[in-house]
């Protein structure tokens, strides 16, 4: 057979070789199978991988064998958590240190989020430690089965390697310039495909060995999702003005229509009042808001407290620092929730006292920069106690 005929035969043979199914692996290296995750997406099994947790280089080629056992599948995992924390910068530092401690690494970080790559065998440990940082508002773990793709890559790599070796041998035997140029062109194409497939195998091997953990801190959930959980507009709106827009303005009035007796703290002015709503503020920017909402039959403090807490955490990213019962001198009682929220470089303190009667729920909120609220805390608490609400 002449060299020209050999060239044509080899080139035509590329497509035929790539179509060969179920061939025994050409490479001796072998990827260890990783068990699949349970349907509850909560307990991750101990897993082996194409890359050790100590960071060894992944196998250059797939080298996997066909299996029908679901526990021998090759899986990648992506976990996404949303957490509300009290100290955002501190939580980011803690997460970064956790990644290093678990033999992983940080992939990226923003002002309120971080992406970590965690050894697959330690992902469950990372999840538990992350959830302990604050109150979780969202959790998603997604597993992707890449077994079939790795099997396909292994076969294609084997066939391309065989073709590469044939072309190299043919190049050594060629004696005509025209034939040599054709062989070199085909060899260049096969080499390029080999490198692309090896790159894909390396990427998948690393993804199997290192799971992705994305953590977003102090980010409210979407309004539509929150609305499904809390079907009360006034609860969803709590803390809405914790950061007033820069163009917010109020017009003064000399005679307010008083709907509820309350002693304002010294140094506070009344910004607005109508039936069921009173708003006041201090010169340092601490806001005080009292509102009244109709109660539902069976609407006890035990009913409203978890909803209010959920609304503040998930809807306004307020990290709750404490809850307690509240009783007024009039005999009316309810509950209080307080917390903090970081907005940019500023930390705001927030507190709501909800007084529950048979017909109404009275909410007394105050918030502002944490240092300023601390200065006025006693005076604000006395003002809350002065509200004339009958049980």
Write the layout of secondary structure elements.
Layout lengths: L2 H16 L56 E10 L3 H14 L3 E5 L3 E7 L3 H9 L3 E11 L1 H27 L3 H33 E8 L5 H7 L3 H4 L31 E7 L2 E6 L4 E8 L6 H16 L2 E9 L5 E11 L2 E11 L3 E10 H16 L6
Helix pairs in contact: 1-4, 1-5, 4-5
Please tell me about this protein's structure:
The structure is a single chain. With 391 residues, the chain is α+β, with helices and mostly antiparallel strands. The protein folds into two domains: 3-217, no CATH class; 223-385, Protein Transport Mog1p, Chain A (3-Layer(aba) Sandwich). Helices cover 36% and strands 26% of the residues. The protein has nine helices and twelve strands. The radius of gyration is 32 Å and the shape is elongated. Residues 1-43 and 45-70 have low confidence and may be disordered.
Largest sheet: 7 strands, antiparallel
| Helix and strand run | HEHEEHEHHEHHEEEHEEEEH
What percent of the residues sit in helical stretches (DSSP H or I)? 25-40%
Number of strands: 12
Structural class: alpha+beta
Calculate Rg over CA atoms.
32 Å
Principal-axes geometry comes out as elongated
How many independent structural domains? 2
Q: How are the strands of the largest sheet arranged?
A: 6-7-8-12-11-10-9
Distance between the termini: 105 Å
Low-confidence stretches: 1-43, 45-70
């Amino acid at each position: 057979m002449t060299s020209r005929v050999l060239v044509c035969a080899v080139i035509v043979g590329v497509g035929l070789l790539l179509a060969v199914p179920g061939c025994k692996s050409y490479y001796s290296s072998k990827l260890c199978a990783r068990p699949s995750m349970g349907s509850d997406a909560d307990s991750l099994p101990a897993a082996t991988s194409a890359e050790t947790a100590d960071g060894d280089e992944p196998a250059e080629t797939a080298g996997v064998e066909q299996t029908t056992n679901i526990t021998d599948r090759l899986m990648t995992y992506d976990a996404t958590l949303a957490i509300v924390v009290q100290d955002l910068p501190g939580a980011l530092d803690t997460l970064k240190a956790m990644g290093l401690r678990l033999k992983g690494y940080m992939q990226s970080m923003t002002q309120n989020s971080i992406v970590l790559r965690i050894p697959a065998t330690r992902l469950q440990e990372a999840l538990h430690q992350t959830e302990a940082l604050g109150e979780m508002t969202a959790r998603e773990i997604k597993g992707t089965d890449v077994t079939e793709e790795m099997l396909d890559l292994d076969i294609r790599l084997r066939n391309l390697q065989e073709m590469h070796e044939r072309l190299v041998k043919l190049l050594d035997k060629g004696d005509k310039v025209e034939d040599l140029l054709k062989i070199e062109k085909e060899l260049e194409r096969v080499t390029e495909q080999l490198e692309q497939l090896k790159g894909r195998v390396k990427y998948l091997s690393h993804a199997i060995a290192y799971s992705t953990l994305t953590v977003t801190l102090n980010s409210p959930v979407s309004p539509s999702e929150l609305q499904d959980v809390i079907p009360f507009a006034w609860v969803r709106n709590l803390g809405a003005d914790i950061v007033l827009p820069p163009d917010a303005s109020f017009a003064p009035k000399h005679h307010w229509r008083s709907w509820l007796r309350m002693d304002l703290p010294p140094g506070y002015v009344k910004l607005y009042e109508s039936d069921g709503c009173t708003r006041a503020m201090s010169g340092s920017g601490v806001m005080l808001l009292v509102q009244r909402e109709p109660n539902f039959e069976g609407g006890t403090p035990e009913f409203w407290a978890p909803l209010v807490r959920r609304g503040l955490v998930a809807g306004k990213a307020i990290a709750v620092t404490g809850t307690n019962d509240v009783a007024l001198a009039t005999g009316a009682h309810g509950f209080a929730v307080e917390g903090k929220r970081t907005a940019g470089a500023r930390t705001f303190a927030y507190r709501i006292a909800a007084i529950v009667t048979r017909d109404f729920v009275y909410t007394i909120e105050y918030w502002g920069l944490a240092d300023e609220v601390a200065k006025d805390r006693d005076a604000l608490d006395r003002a809350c106690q002065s509200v004339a609400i009958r049980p």
